[in-house]
């Protein structure tokens, strides 16, 4: 199960892949972490997938992370009396709190938080941005708009309010029930949807209480504005280009993607690029050249992981999609320009012993042409510090805690291993050498770099670096 690439792959489980055979095939093909999308499926569906993943983990003897992705608030128009309507550009259309089914002149919008936030001149986007309304007048209970971009509108279609901060929690009652259920199952990562500001993350952190790592999905323009504050509070970010591409002009998304990836790299927080990576492989055995280039761009930018959504959840070629993404990543990382790009951007280390050791490990590994950097870490923080340096040597993240090893499956370049506790430092070094050989990272005569903390058992105490020869 050793990967010949550094960037990781997140695969979404759905109807097309909710079987032991398919999930094992995805893991063998290159999936490092699995996403359970709580926007779809029942708790029982997710429990089946969760148990299968853990069974595959035991069979392959490889720690596998699980991301539970919360739905977040879904803002939708209400129902129509006589089926779908046609919005004509230039005509007027009213949205209000009246629950009476709508018609060609009005529709219910059962979200007072939207109507309270609107002001004249604001735009409303309907049905994933296909239709656009401009607010002419509003009073907190209704909004009179003019149709700027028309088309067919069905009931329960989504509503986006670009550029407007809504007074709404990112955690609905459904999300809170899902969160409790997923944490009880043992999810390793929690994906937060609809994050608008740093306070949204703080609320989720209180509920999660350290039972899982927190990943903020950056999909709102307001979250981009508060990006640095949000990054400080989370363990990871996802560039969720679906909703981001609805609320922002498409031409703005590539630059924002690069900004998010760069900011996360500098902060030492893993970052995932998601949505429509290999979209055509939902129904085709091969991607478009543009999709291959899109994946390659995320790898060149230094993303920790790339995510497949419908491609593996409901597509016709889920295993082929993972194999294709893995090949694209491998090819990019072999490109002569790739190493130069990784070396051009390094975060500034904090004035701590752990950061000094982590930065030195990469430099010593490069100078000595070491086969691998081996980290012993109780919490995974040292492994994460070394991963953010993007060293040319392979990284082996050793920990005695399976839950930490599973979280490490998201990190760039990290081969995660559950190791036995060492009795002393020499035992630790000998164990690191043995595991490096067993896992296929080193052979006789190779050097490895070992980092650890002494005394043992204290979190955040990395203070030793050793060069060992196999």
Explained architecture:
By secondary structure, this protein is of the alpha/beta class. It has helices spanning 20-29, 43-60, 112-117, 173-185, 198-208, 221-225, 227-233, 241-247, 253-267, 289-301, 310-313, 318-333, 336-344, 353-368, 381-388, 402-408, 425-438; strands spanning 8-13, 33-37, 65-69, 85-87, 92-96, 106-108, 123-126, 131-138, 142-149, 151-153, 159-160, 189-192, 213-218, 236-240, 271-274, 305-308, 372-376, 394-399, 414-418, 447-453, 462-469. An eight-stranded parallel barrel has the order 1-2-3-12-13-14-15-16, surrounded by nine helices. Strand 17, helix 15 and strand 18 form a beta-alpha-beta unit. The model has no long low-confidence stretch (mean pLDDT 94).
Task: Describe the secondary-structure layout.
Elements: E1 8-13, H1 20-29, E2 33-37, H2 43-60, E3 65-69, E4 85-87, E5 92-96, E6 106-108, H3 112-117, E7 123-126, E8 131-138, E9 142-149, E10 151-153, E11 159-160, H4 173-185, E12 189-192, H5 198-208, E13 213-218, H6 221-225, H7 227-233, E14 236-240, H8 241-247, H9 253-267, E15 271-274, H10 289-301, E16 305-308, H11 310-313, H12 318-333, H13 336-344, H14 353-368, E17 372-376, H15 381-388, E18 394-399, H16 402-408, E19 414-418, H17 425-438, E20 447-453, E21 462-469
Parallel strand pairs: 1-2, 1-16, 2-3, 3-12, 5-6, 12-13, 13-14, 14-15, 15-16, 17-18, 17-20, 18-19
Antiparallel strand pairs: 4-10, 5-9, 7-8, 7-11, 8-9, 20-21
Helix pairs in contact: 1-2, 1-12, 5-7, 7-9, 10-12, 14-15
């Amino acid at each position: 199960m050793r990967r010949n690439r550094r960037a990781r792959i997140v695969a979404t489980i759905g109807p097309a892949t909710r079987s032991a055979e398919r999930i094992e095939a995805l893991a063998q093909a290159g999936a490092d972490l699995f996403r359970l999308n709580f926007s779809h499926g029942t708790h029982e569906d997710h429990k089946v997938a969760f148990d299968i993943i853990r069974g595959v983990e035991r069979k392959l003897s490889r720690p596998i992370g699980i991301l539970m992705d919360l739905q977040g608030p879904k803002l939708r128009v209400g129902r129509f009396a006589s089926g779908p309507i046609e919005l004509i550009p230039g005509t007027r259309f009213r949205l209000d709190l009246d629950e009476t089914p709508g018609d060609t002149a009005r529709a219910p919008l059962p979200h007072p938080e939207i109507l309270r936030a609107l002001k004249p001149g604001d735009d409303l986007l309907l049905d994933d941005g296909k239709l656009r309304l401009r607010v002419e007048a509003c009073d907190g209970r209704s909004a009179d708009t003019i149709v700027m971009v028309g088309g067919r509108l069905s009931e329960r279609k989504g509503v986006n309010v670009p550029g407007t901060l809504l007074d709404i929690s990112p955690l609905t009652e459904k999300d809170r029930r899902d969160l409790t259920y997923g944490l009880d199952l043992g999810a390793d990562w929690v994906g937060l949807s609809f994050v608008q500001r740093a306070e949204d993350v703080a609320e989720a952190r209180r509920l999660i209480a350290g039972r899982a790592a927190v990943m903020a999905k950056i999909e709102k323009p307001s979250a981009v504005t508060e990006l640095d504050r949000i990054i400080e509070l989370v363990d990871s970010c996802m560039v969720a280009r679906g909703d981001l591409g609805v609320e922002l002009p498409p031409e703005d998304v590539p630059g924002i993607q690069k900004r998010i990836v760069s900011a996360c790299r500098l902060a030492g927080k893993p970052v995932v690029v998601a949505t429509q990576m290999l979209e055509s492989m939902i129904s085709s055995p091969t991607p478009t050249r543009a999709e291959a280039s899109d994946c390659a761009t995320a790898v060149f930018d230094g993303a920790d992981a790339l995510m497949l959504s419908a491609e593996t959840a409901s597509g016709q070629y889920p295993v082929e999609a993972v194999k294709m993404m893995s090949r694209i990543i491998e090819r990019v990382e072999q490109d002569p320009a790739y190493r130069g790009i990784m070396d051009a951007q390094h975060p500034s280390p904090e004035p701590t012993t752990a950061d000094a050791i982590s930065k030195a490990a990469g430099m010593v590994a490069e100078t000595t042409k070491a086969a691998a950097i081996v980290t012993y870490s109780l919490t995974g923080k040292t492994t994460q510090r070394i991963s953010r340096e993007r060293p040319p040597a392979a990284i082996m993240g050793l920990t005695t805690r399976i839950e930490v090893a599973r979280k490490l499956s998201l990190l760039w370049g990290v081969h995660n291993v559950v190791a036995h506790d060492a009795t002393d430092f020499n035992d630790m070094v000998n164990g690191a050498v043995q595991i490096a050989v067993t896992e296929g990272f080193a052979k006789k005569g190779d050097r490895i770099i070992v980092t650890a903390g002494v005394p043992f058992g204290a979190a955040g105490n990395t203070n030793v670096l050793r060069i060992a020869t196999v």
